[in-house]
Design a protein that fits this description.
This protein is an all-alpha fold. The protein has one domain. Helix content is 81%, strand content 0%. The chain has 3 helices and no strands. The chain is elongated, with a radius of gyration of 17 Å. It starts with a helix and ends in a 6-residue tail after the last helix.
Length: 72
């Protein structure tokens, strides 16, 4: 699931790169601007980003558990 979420986030980021550089929205071009399919794609990419945020915090917790602070 983490890999799928990462791939979706990369796709979303590349779409934003196209929008920023060329004012070209690939998702809207493929599925149509404002269509239900485009909204589904945007929603799935957004959910992947939320999953990515959770992955970020899980890594922080795992890293802290692997290297506990020494008590003085």
């Amino acid at each position: 699931m983490n890999t799928v979420a990462l791939l979706l986030m990369i796709i979303g980021a590349l779409n934003w790169l196209l929008v920023g550089l060329f004012q070209f929205n690939l998702v809207a071009w493929i599925f149509g601007a404002g269509t239900i399919l485009a909204r589904i794609v945007y929603s799935v990419v957004g959910l992947a980003a939320i999953w990515g945020i959770a992955m970020l915090f899980q890594r922080s917790v795992r890293h802290a558990d692997a290297h506990p602070m020494e008590e003085t």
